[in-house]
Amino acid sequence: MPPSNPDRTSRWTDAWVSLAVGGVLLVAFPRILEYYVAPGSFTWTFVDRDGAPLAYPASAFFLVDVGVLAWAIASVVDGVASLVPRRAAVAVALAASAISVVLNVFVAIKVSSELGFQLLPALAIACGGYVARQRGARLSRPA
User: Fold this and answer.
1) Structural domain span for residue 37
2) 65 in a domain, yes or no?
3) Measured CA distances, 134 to 97, 110, 139 (Å)
4) Mean of the per-residue pLDDT values for the chain?
């Protein structure tokens, strides 16, 4: 049972939500993991604008998948860091979120001309920005 201390309860809630988001992203969008971990089961095909076959890493979808993977990893890191009441863990979570946001801004800009607006990078930017702000505020509090 989670502790009754409000600060500890908030940490448990943050951890649960972050771990859940990271887990859902990894399960719902496994394409990049499938490509690298189980290439034999990778059956996706991609074509360029002229209909010619295109390798997955050369497609715009690869960048989107890298952004989603970065968001998932940052979420898991944040969830674990939320359970550890150490400033260093919070700093690592802040760095992971910031890196994920910057990467997803790049992805959103880079793929927009080819794929149009992409919801997942936009959500990664919004959620990651919120998490980074929260972790930054937590780090600015006195130890």
Assistant:
1) 6-140
2) yes
3) 10, 28, 9
4) 92
